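Hey team,

Filing this mostly as a record. A colleague (T.K.) asked me to run one chain through the structure pipeline before their review meeting, and I want the input and output archived in the tracker in case anyone asks later how it was produced. No errors, nothing strange. Just documentation.

Input sequence:
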Amino acid sequence: MVLENYEPKRVLYYFERIAAIPHGSRHTAAISDYLVSFAKEKGLDHRQDSLGNVVIRKKASDGYEAAEPVILQGHIDMVCEKDADCDIDMSGEGLRLKVLTRKELPYLMERPLRKDQSEDDVIITAEGTTLGGDDGIAVAYMLAILESDSIPHPALECIFTVDEEIGMLGAAGFDAEDIQGRLLLNIDSEDEGHLLVGCAGGCTTTISLPVERTYPDEIMDTMILSVEGLQGGHSGIEIDKGRANASVLLGRLLQMLFFEFKNDLCLCSVNGGSKDNAIPRSAEAVLLVSLGMQEAVGNYIKEEEAIYRKEYGKREPDFRLVCRFTDEAERPMTRESARNTINLLRCVPNGIQQMSFDIPGLVETSLNLGILVTTEKEISASFSVRSSVNSEKWELINRLSAVAEALGGSCSNEGEYPAWEYREDSRLREVMKSCYEAQYGEPMIVETIHAGVECGLFADKLQGLDAVSFGPDMNDIHTPKEAMDLPSVQRTWKLILSVLKVLGEQ
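Output structure:
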């Protein structure tokens, strides 16, 4: 066990157990069953629904029976991203956890240290892959509380949801009829000291374009053109960082290539990204190139690479365009299908669409082209659409639908979730602020965010719900650089226990 010598021991014990179980989105059956086995072993009341969501209940500690029940909630799926040279099969293998210090991670040392951070802080990462701290740490916290006989708390309802990362599908399909609590602690935030009290609503919107294929009129070389080395990141939290979207950048490059070499190129496929809510770090196109044109096309790509490097500068220091030729042949699209594909990538909106006029610095409406896939007969482009204003969300979805229709395609929506609106009168918010200030000696930052949080769905299902979201420091979630700060995990654990104690005593 990599984490066995660190505190809090039982929290980290369960985090490591979870990391050993593959649990990417849509593949959470094993971890869902693990939670059921845990509940049975501990003699705790529980239920598991057809989606794989799990509820585990625990009675109040002695003397806390009269307190209002509390809901603890987090999701059990993770975003599975890995480096190109990583040999882990994330669908069937567990993660390889690593413990480093902050100073051993150059990308963390580039960021200013807060007063509670040190270059010698212990950082938990995974070898070549995402860590799943989002939201494995919430699961670990809850299991450690559920198993303990010494932690004082009110009656608990611990809700573990599936498929949060692909549209909050587990929370959307969750039957909350038997849930008694109306105080919800969602442990799915990544900035210690920040208390989330509202978030954007969203939807996954997919454009599908039909593809027709033909045969080239001449013998041609096959070229694989890749956009690589981008930072990526969470499409809600990092959407305002100016990071490039690999699929969008690929569309720009293809438009210029076909303008310059119209009669010497054929397009076979475009693919990029793997999660609709992660900004794609790489994308590639397969093209056919007329014989004798390899050098000219390659030189033009180098010229375009220099232009993009100048534009993105420090935002994307590792950006590169890579082209290689292969003997493998693919059947190309017709000219019309290729034109429609490129026009799709060039015409769809992407990134920030509207900033809030009410809350300075808050992104109000955005979207991210997250998954781009080509099959024999279809191009599929999936977007994570977000807005804290419901009408703006639908206006953006309608724009995507209009683009699809203009190009002869169709548009579908999945996993729509409501915005989580700020609650003026919140007992839970005040308890959190009070406990935090008592522990840290400074006020907690209360804010709403652009990223989606399951609290909105639970507020929609549970009349009068009072909810907050918080968590320990994590950096670069949804990328192989994901890093979880252990001292922050420890402080957040202490805060959770303090809040449960106060809620039980009131």
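Quick notes for T.K.: Residues 101 and 121 are 5 Å apart (CA to CA). The chain is about 30% helix and 25% strand.
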